[in-house]
Amino acid sequence: HVVVPLCRRGVLNLSARPSSYCRVRVRVRVVRRLPSSTSSTCSSSSSSSHSSSKSRDSSSSCRFGGKILRWRDVARNEKEFNTHAVLWEARKKDDDDAKATLVLMLHGGPQVPHDYLKPIGQALSAQRHVVTYDQLGCGLSDAPDDASLYGIDNAIDELRRAIARARQAAGVPSSEKIHVLGQSWGGILAFEAVRTGEIGDEIKSLILSNVPPNVAAVEADANKLLEEAGGDVELFMARHNCRVVPQPKQVADAYAKAGSTWRGSGVLAGYEAAKTTSSSWPAHLRTLVISGEHDFVTPELAKTWLDILPHGSASQVVVNGGSHMPFWDASEQYFGRVCAFLDECDDTK
Question: Assign residue 111 a region: left if phi > 0, alpha if psi is -120 to 50, beta otherwise?
Answer without folding.
Answer: left
